Amino acid sequence: MEHAICAVFAHNEERDIETCLDSITRQFQGKIFVLINGCTDNTFDVVTRYSKIHNTVVPVDIKVGDKSNAWNVFVHEINIEAEHYFFVDGDCTVEDSAFNLALSKFEKLRESKLNGIACTPKETTKNRVKQTHEMIKEGQLAGNFYALTNHFIKRVRCHNIYLPIGTIGEDGLVGALAFWDLKPFSKWDLEKVHVAKDIKFDYRTLSIFNSHDLKLYYRRKIRYSERFFQNKIITECFRDKGLSWLSGRISDLYEHYEPLLKVRFRGVNTYFDWIALRALKRQFK
Hints:
The chain is an alpha/beta fold. The protein folds into two domains: 2-203, Spore Coat Polysaccharide Biosynthesis Protein SpsA, Chain A, CATH 3.90.550; 211-282, no CATH class. It has nine helices and eight strands. Strand 2 (32-37), helix 2 and strand 3 (57-62) form a beta-alpha-beta unit. Helix 8 (211-241) crosses helix 9. The termini are far apart.
């Protein structure tokens, strides 16, 4: 069994992926699987060249551009047995000593049977400070950088749990499974996932003066609205079916739960909800 392995999610990340990998390889000794999913840029070539210099880096070419599907590939198809599993977004960097701190916390908290550790953003803005506070208070997991235990992953495999392809904000779904300890609508147990204020990740902040960033922000707002509607469906699926619905595509559920897909006034988000809902309904009408 491996001591620790790492998955890096990379979808069109040729600009940031080397910086991300540098922040990992200088401190992490285990295998690093770069899940290059649905890329239309040169991410695969960049990672392949990088792997020839750093032999712990393994490029994994996945045709489908979907983070939930990439998570499934890593957990169920690559299917390596390890004591600890780390997950990092390819547009992020990991602070120095983050992996050692996480592994030390796992060892220190061994008796509590943790499902995972949620790392927190470098607090360079008020929004990030607020995010960290909410993660600790409410029990949240950020998909940028987190870790899961062998105990948790083994049960995910045993229950044959697959994140539905097309799920936006798969970190929220993984977090729910971990905080619930795979028992939907049981206690949201803050002791099952340790939110680590001292284990940090960072990412490039979008600029209003950059046209590329403005377009990215616009698309991101639409995706947030898609996630808003998906979360309504996901909640009902957990209520109706427990864990048994976790497979296939999230879009397969839209028609059955169509009554939940309605636009209501949410301030500025209403506009993005309307655009997102039109896209969702096109998938089953």
